[in-house]
Amino acid sequence: MAGNTREFASRKLHSLLGVIPVGLFLLVHLTVNYLATRGADSFNAGAEFMENLPFLIFFELLFIYLPLLYHGIYGVYIAFTGTFNGGRFGYFRNWMYILQRATGIITFIFLVWHVWETRVQIALGNAEVNYDMMVDILSNPWMVAFYFIGVISAVFHFSNGLWSFAVSWGITVTPRSQRISSYVTGVIFILLTIVAVRALLAFM
Length: 204
Known about the structure:
Strand content: under 5%
Oligomer: single chain
Structural class: mainly alpha
Distance between the termini: 54 Å
Largest sheet: none
Shape: globular
Number of helices: 9
């Protein structure tokens, strides 16, 4: 009984952290990156503003890295211990379940690499947060493919995760509300994908 209660609470926390604050951070990150579509100066100004926020390191640690680690590690555990019914039933939601787990693993790998390639290198004094840094990263065709896959996976995982979040927290309890939620989260995925892809292309 205690184990079931603990697992229930862990899944609730995992779901909540995926939207707040991890999901909100994704939206902020995409917004700053999208400034690159207006040119290097706009992106650099946005990046500089974010870098100069007070108590940035503590904010990142408490509201980004720790929640992200919990959501990511527990998400990998869920992915490898969950039951996949897509091949047996083929229902749309079962396939979304499979894609949610797959994109979660891809996103986690991508974010670990992205943090190493950006935040860690910046902390070591090997790079600066600016337009040229991203241009240099995306000058490698393999990195272009990796970033496109990683970013689109992250956007899908967040968008589809909103559907699961709404169900888990009792926001959408009827079949009709869940169907509407599927359409809404689908539109969110399309719009955020456009933002993400345009931002990546702006660095190329």
